Amino acid sequence: MDRRSLLKAAGIAAATTTVGATSSAGIASGEVEVTQESDYEVWTVTGKEVYDLADGEQLSNVLIDQSADGACLTIRSRNKTGWEVRNVGFVGGGQAGGGSNRFQVQVSTPDGGQGVIENIWANGKERDGQPSTELGGIYIRAAHGGHIDISNTYVEGYGNNGVYASAMGKNGGNEGTVTVEDSYHRDNTVSQFRIGSPESYVRNCIAIVNDPNGERGVYSGSNRNARGIWGLHYQNQIVENSSFFVSPDDVQPDGVFEARYIPNRSLGSRAVLEVIDCDVNPDAPSLRESTSNAEVNFTNLGNEPTADVIGGGGVPSSPEMAARGEREMPDPPELSDSDGGDGTPDLDRTLTIDGTDADRTDYEFTVSGDIAENPDVGYLGEGDQIDGSTASGFVNGGVDGYLFSGEITDATVDGNATILVDGEEVDFGTPDLDRTLTFDGTNADRTDYEFTVSGDLAENPDVGSLGVGDEIDGSTASGFVNGGVDGYLFSGEITDATVTGNATVLVDGEEVDPETLGLNRTLTVDGTDADRTDYEVTVSGDLAENPDVGYLGEGDQIDGSTATGFVNGGIDGYLFSGEVTDASVSGNAPILVDGEPLDLGQFEEAPTIDRYEVIEVGSPNPDANIVAEWDVSDADGDLSEATVEVLDDSDSVVDSATTSITGDVAYGVDYFAIEDVDGQGFTVQLTVTDSFGKQSTATKTVQE
Questions:
Q1: Each residue of 526-539: pLDDT tens digit?
Q2: Quick one: 608-703 is in which CATH superfamily?
Q3: Distance between CA atoms of residues 115 and 140, nearest Å
Q4: Is 0.70 topped by the overall pTM?
């Protein structure tokens, strides 16, 4: 008989009863006082308690009071199936203990099993005279092999994730799945939502990090880093239709969206977090972060997070409301005002196509926000349609009208109807071509040319019509001059150009060297206040010396898209197109791209772990005595530090050591003594870092 059955068998109808806190596994642990309110039971906990779920059990309508000093109750399932935990509220943060009391909820199901967690309220922040908690919120055990649905939960202020559902995706995990829906988690250290197994996702949720006073729980001693969502171990980790807010004023904000792959531990081949139809505050301090072999992808990312993403009636706003089985739509002050869930966006701008005195006019407009028909103008006719943020159609003597938000980002108009934006007439038919490019072959041999611009392009009527063999194809023009002059109007920049011949080339009326046409970026090696510096730089486009800096000296050369040379008190300058794809520098002269320092770290090689051995010595005894020995190297010769971390089976760091290292090779031995962990396994991870922040990791597992 489990504790729930025991409580019911005791005939709790009113009054107060004290029962022995004996789990279904028969573990005796203190006492729980049970009282009956009209809509729910109250369990008052005074020590460290564990409630073990049974197969098929429904735990519901319970208020768990763990506000006593040192009290905590963990709800646990050790691979049971068919259980449901609904309508549970926690009073007090609960204080972490050893063994099983490290999470508020700690569950798993077997292969093919099912579990449900719904309508939970839990807050681990420092408040009402209680300290914050180091507990984690909802933890899905590594042994989980079935499926668990989590919905309509409110979890705040915990020290080790709001939902921690990634352990089953690493070594020793059983690759079970989890769905989190219609939940609101805020100010939990590490992350609000953490997933890391195949076919797991977060949908219709809110994640907020805005704790400037540091009232939330800490992780591993003092860390309060907090992410929005963390996707680990596998590709296709999905979060969709959710709102995120990470404040730049938070005590320790981290990335909103993060992906992490752990070499030798992640069971998948790559970690990819797919962010679909989500919104995030535009001033978030770090939008996305990822480790090597991991990435974050965005589809339709907006910047107006709102509470209206949550469905299913919302979340409970107090522990008592949760215990009663009630919930309501949340109204976080950080998010945009709720529109009541009717899905009507705030469309404060107008677009009108007035064909009253015009021929038939076809149009297509795209906006950066939302768009809808304007009822003040009338309903759209046949052939007019709205597809997402794009409206298309035609007028032929009538008027079409739209409401929209944001800006008009693209427009095509074919006809002479009047176009009005916010009541003012605009001309979308003629692009703003404010720059000129001229090929003057008056005193030259035949010269062939082809060039591409980043904006729009048209012939220049002030120069004359283009001749046979001259043509414009989108943003590219090609042709030749043979004693005549060709002229173009364009917007943006010249991004690519080829000129064969000796015609004079003028950009905006100024003569330019045809060799540098299309090379609109600068690369400068400034040795004015530096020692001798040797360099080699490769770009993805074309490359030429920069005449504004001066001619290259002896020992400097250009070979295709690569420049090599040195400076010793002087300056070398180049013009190029594309991007810098590789760079190596020996010396202290700054490298500037378009006037800004080039981050050379992006071209650095990560350090190498040449040898890594971990053993557990001293057994038999109840302690883990771990020795980690390592050899590392770095081809760039800029080693910085080596860190060894010992992690338990919930990925919590129980001990660590960091060694400062320099040069191109280093060796070290680290010793760890962890007491009273009889039979437990540990992961020991080595991370070596160079001075540019490049890292390599290796892991080993040991058993006490």
A1: 999 999 999 999 99
A2: Immunoglobulins (2.60.40.10)
A3: 11
A4: no
